[in-house]
Design goal:
By secondary structure, the chain is an alpha/beta fold. It contains 31 helices and 19 strands. It starts with 6 loop residues before the first strand and ends with a helix.
Amino acid sequence: MTTFTNFRFDVDADGIALATWDMPGRSMNVITPEVMDELARIVETVASDAAIKGCVITSGKETFSGGADLTMLQGLGVAYARLSKDEGAEAAMSYFFAESRKLSLLYRRLETCGKPFAAAINGVCLGGAFELALACHFRVVSDSDATRVGLPEIKVGLFPGAGGTQRVSRLMPTGDALQMLFKGEQHRPLMARNMGLVHAVVPQAELVKTAKEWIGKGGSPVAPWDEKGFRLPSGKVYSPAGMQIWPAANAIYRRETQDNYPAAYAVLEAVYQGLQLPMDQALTVESRWFAKILRSKEAAAMIRTFFVSMQELNKGARRPKDIPPTTLRKIGIVGAGFMGASVAYVTAQAGMSVVLIDRDMESAEKGKAHSHKLMSDQILKGRAKTADRDALLSRITASADYADLKDCDLVIEAVFEDPKVKAEVIAKVEAAISPDCIFASNTSTLPISGLAQHAQRPDQFIGIHFFSPVEKMMLVEIIRGKQTGERALAVALDFVRAIRKTPIVVNDSRGFFANRCVLAYILEGHLMLAEGIPPAMIENAGKQAGMPVGPLSLNDEVGVDLGLKILRATKAQLGDAAIQPEQEALLTRLVDGEGRLGRKNRKGFYDYPEGGPKRLWPGLAALQPTHQEAERVDMQDLKRRLLVTQALEAARTVEEGVITDPREADVGSILGFGFAPYTGGALSYIDFMGARTFVDLCRDLQTRFGDRFAPPAILLDMAATGGTFYARAADAKTAA
């Protein structure tokens, strides 16, 4: 029998083959060139051997597969650039197209080889792995809670290019298929069956047996779309039913993407064109769009940030290598307000014991009740059981006694943002904790080095900055003070990894990284308002640029009064030159004059009526010293200003040594404040535009709108040398 490296291949007494995908040395199966070669050999073995009735493909690991190794696709781009230079663009494109569609052709060969194939799926089966399952003639999944299927490629700037768009749109109504492809969500077993994506859901122990029984009972080796007389679920594209779908689909695409995501447009085109063609031609159409998208800067940026960098950071890329792994059992949290209570929830959810301290038992118990509410919400949505809530709450101990912190491995203070209050808490905590306990501050505004002056062991003091709402936001900023030691950094990173969030490490400074960029975005919105630009245009420009909300809406969320407080503190410490007087006048009028504090009191830049959608406050027009006609405002200017101001601030954090790794700036900017994901992040926005082009854009904006757009020295140097932030980081790493 043929032997393989990544598969075990056996044929039973009934003539049914079992291909067990089990890559050596990996915790999860991934699609690589070697896997593709071996799968092709398996298909030909099954097709050519008359004694083999069919084949079941399953996994030898706890999970089926997460899909393709995207670094393989990155390599295609490198090969294209090299061939284009050496042999010309036509030869390079020919090679690129042929290579990028190999997986699609392999799956089509499996589908049409004349023998039935069944996929027996346990755990996650995503992306290219689920496209493999879709090419199989029968799909059975485990009923385990861990089982998920889906096509999440859109989240890394791609789309399913191995037949996914064509098979999904032939399995379910067109609108549902487009929704699935646009969202990239993972589906649970029963939902997948109800959607028509899989045929059966069975206990894991019966997966292979069920798949073999289907083949043994004469399972058909012909896919539905290859049967004569096959009808599309939603009818022909050019039909009354079809014309009910496509205008709406195009409108939804425009609304949701603002035309910033080429992969989403490619999905529309591939499905629209493909449904008008036989399957083989449809797959060719899909492949052509896939090759086009794979070469886009958006895909390159998003693959690098969302796949490569995110994985590296989550696996501890910034963790000190010589510090042994920490086993965190008990975490102390001081301050049971909204932030502290939320940190307690995610910590207990990760299985650790929590001591939640506040000034009195009533306050501490109120903080614990927050976890009860969050878990109850999960139960109502069917995502948790009552036993899960009881177990989580049993791990949280509410207390007013600092002595209960004595055996904690890590303590996080989350009290009011006041240096005096924090200094008092630091003293109380340090009197109670063990000598080797790491002490962290969850602060968003106060420098860690200043707080560490109140600590007895400043080398064990570090910042752990959570974003609100903690249970939903995936980013955590870890701030190194001037005296923070390597062990404190390692423990903080271990903690963030334990609660399944993504860490970035930044050096201490006012506003750290994320808040500096966020404040620049909000400031630009304020200055636009002061210039007389219609508020709705400002907000729409932010969303069209790719931000989740406009700058005025974001200011309402964080608090207009907080913005004024930060501005006044900055002015007091750094002088008048550190602030924009137009912003001070606007916020003072809103907060002190109108009592508009933001969403917290239902009135800020927006009004928040009970039971109705928010709407821009009509009184904003009276706060504008002048008014510009909307027709005369350049929307492209507004979009560029809102992105450039954030990217400039990110570049300054690199120049100042706050950010030392561009991966963290890119991941942090997207996860922390939603910087236009299609760019790959704030520094990738500059890198993919090119430093010279970006500097020219900054100088143009500086001339027209002010010196805040002046490019810093680091960008001028990169523009002169043709450098990038990632190349600088690689050079620095090599030199070290």
